[in-house]
Design brief:
Elements lengths: L1 H5 L8 H6 L1 H12 L22 H4 L1 H5 L15 H18 L6
Length: 104
Amino acid sequence: MEADRLGHSPPVVDSAEILKNPEGVLHRLCKSLGIVWDAAMLAWEKGPLVEDGIWGAHWYDKVNASTGFGPAHAKMPLLDAAYQKTADACRGDYEFMRNYAIKA
C-alpha cells in the first residue's frame, strides 16, 4: 500500500468535495503535496490543451466547454445493469478511500 510506503495516507481527492469548495480543497491538496497554491487553478480558458493527448477529444467535451468549477450534479446518473454491477462492486473501496478524502 502507498500509505505503508509513505508512512501516512496519501492525499485522496473526492470530486464531490472539490465541487463543494474548490479553493479550500485544492489549497489543502497543494499543501499536502508540497506545491505552491495558485488561485489560477480555479479557472481556465475554454478549449483543449496539447497535454490532453489523443483521448482528450473523446473524454473532455464538458471540460473543454468550461472555464472553471461548477456545481455538483443533483443526483447520480442511472446506470445500465452491467455498469451498475461494476459500480456496486467498487462501492466498498470508494467508501474506504472517501474516509481519507480532503474535506471541503
